Amino acid sequence: MIPAGKFKVFVVSLAGSADRRRLMAGQLDQPGFPVWEFLDAVEGRKLSAAELEYRYDENAARRRYGKGLSPGHVGCALSHLDAYRRMQSEDLAAALILEDDALIGEHALQVIERLLARLSPAEPTLVLLSHAKYYRPFGGWRLDRERKVFPIHMARGTHGYLLTRAAADRILTTMPKVTVVPDHWELIRDLCKVRIQAVVPYPVGRSPIAGYSGMPTPPPSAADNARKRNGQWRKLRFQLGKIACGSRKQPASW
User: Fold this and answer.
1) 185-198 residue pLDDT tens
2) pTM, whole model, 2 decimals?
3) 44-69 core/surface letters (b: 16 or more CB in 10 A; e: else)
């Protein structure tokens, strides 16, 4: 169980995003909602070369993806790592991380309360409240009459999730520098040995104002064919894993 006084909500948002912040405040300023605050996001495009070298390992990212991460991905990842460090400095047992394009469903507060009653701060657990495209139907547990919590198979999106202090500590220890796309959850799960689950159906959607910061397309090189073959092999392993685990696809309903 997570004590109420040891839990906080961080909303990752660029300092100048006044309209987005007003929209989020309107959703979160409601009776019974936990203590929350805005956390100024890192703008990847404005990072100096020295800051990038200190906080981002491009060589590791290139080994993993065949190309470096976009400034948007680097800034997003650093923003979330900063939220985990705030959990450490404030000695929080758990935190809910939201981005300023999140849409809070009418049952989200009930979901959060039920998760806090079930989770232990000593267990490295991260629970997605947003859409998880594929989940594993085995090893799940019932959250309430309408929802269950399942292990993920493949999920993207950083706009709404809850994590324990143990999960935050483990991610920061394993990845002191940014090396992966911030919402590559199944890879983060495997690298950091964190249990990552998802609430099905999901209680946090994404606003139409949400943008997409894609990875840049690198110029052709001699290694492109090898990267393509590796990508095809990864897709095949993913499909085989879906079959082996009996993974199910969750519709994106909102």
Assistant:
1) 999 999 999 999 99
2) 0.84
3) beebeeeebeebbbbeebeebbbebb
